[in-house]
Design goal:
Blueprint (H helix, E strand, L loop, with lengths): L1 E7 L2 H17 L4 E7 L2 H4 L16 H8 L5 E5 L11 E6 L7 E5 L13 E3 L3 H10 L4 E3 L5 H9 L5 E5 H6 L8 E4 L14 E6 L3 H9 L3 H17 L7 E8 L2 E8 L8 E8 L6 H11 L2 H12 L9
Parallel strand pairs: 1-2, 1-3, 6-7, 6-8
Antiparallel strand pairs: 3-10, 4-10, 5-8, 5-9, 11-12, 12-13
Helix pairs in contact: 8-9
Length: 318
């Protein structure tokens, strides 16, 4: 049997695809796995903020189109890029074991966020990170940062930024942390990650029992529980990526801690929650917290946040 994995062509996406290929071939020696490498629109348009080119769905759409056209059986995604809506004919069949979800502070000049001087330039494209940075340090100047990981690190090394914030997991997988003088992993209370960070989503063509079985073998139950809480929250609150929203569920022992935060990209008008529940009470956890925030005016706040997100008075973009 031969299986084709659709993947983006960035270094990190290829690492992820080869990782899943190796796992499948180790468990199913009779299965040959090949890659269909696709350049997604999100990888091609690097001069605009992600939300202006259609958001995170741009990293998944071309892979889904390839599966629907019969050119691939499976797609391996960073789960944080997978919209809560899955096209008919496809299904998100598995979520792999999540690694460290933290964001990390990177700099060639300063040891930590607290060490940055007033007015320092910090690079990030993420409205979620922008919101949390400016809530804690409204004096900072936040500039947009696009490009693949190596491009972003090069811009930091060239001195275009005093610091940048990236996901720790990608840098670790590509062994890039060792080349940066100052790295400071941010706690989940300091910088809440996005839905699905550090887990892989395995999307398959529906109706194939063997594909379903293979996907099941890649699934991690604890990660699935936590990321489903996050996805239910995002789905209920209807947050697109042009609205700054952070949400993260972590299982420790027999309980789950769920952190959520939303607000304006400039760090004002913040709503946040941190709720702990036992695993037995987690049914509908994400949706319930979303409803609580909606009852407190979250939808109006997000609508306004989206309106101000790309106005000219926003901090300068590169």
């Amino acid at each position: 049997m031969k299986i084709t994995i659709a993947t983006r062509v960035s270094d990190l996406a290829l690492w992820q695809a080869y990782h899943i290929k190796e796992r499948i071939e180790a468990m199913y020696p009779d299965v040959e796995v090949v890659l269909n490498k696709i350049v997604s629109n999100g990888d091609k348009v690097l001069d605009k903020p992600l939300a202006l080119i259609g958001g995170k769905g741009h990293f998944t759409k071309e892979l889904e189109d390839a599966m629907l056209a019969g050119e691939a059986d499976i797609a391996v995604h960073s789960l944080k890029d997978v919209p809560t809506y899955i096209p008919e004919g496809l299904e998100l069949a598995a979520v792999t074991q999540r690694q460290d979800q933290s964001d990390v502070f990177l700099s060639h000049k300063y040891a930590s966020l607290d060490d940055l001087p007033e007015g320092a330039v910090v690079g990030t494209t993420s409205l979620r990170r922008r919101m949390q940075l400016l809530q804690k340090r409204p004096d900072l100047k936040v500039k947009d940062l696009r490009g693949n990981v190596n491009t972003r690190l090069r811009k930091l090394a060239e001195g275009q930024y005093d610091a940048i914030i990236l996901a720790w997991i990608g840098l670790n997988r590509l062994d890039l942390l060792k080349d940066i003088p100052f790295t400071d992993k941010l706690s989940l209370d300091m910088m809440i990650p996005p839905m699905g960070q550090a887990a892989l989503g395995i999307e398959i063509v529906s109706g194939d029992a063997k594909l379903q079985e293979i996907a099941e073998s890649l699934k991690d139950a604890d990660t699935y529980l936590c990321t489903q809480i996050e996805r239910d929250f995002i789905s209920k609150i209807g947050a697109g990526c042009s609205a700054p929203v952070a949400c993260n569920a972590v299982k420790r022992g027999e309980s789950v801690t769920f952190r959520v935060m939303l607000g304006y990209p400039d760090g004002t008008n913040i709503m946040q929650e941190k709720v702990v529940k036992s695993i037995s009470e987690c049914e509908g956890f994400g949706s319930d917290i979303a409803q609580k925030m909606i009852d407190n005016g979250a939808l109006e706040l997000l609508k306004n946040a989206e309106r101000v997100a790309f106005k000219e008075e926003m901090p300068q973009r590169l």
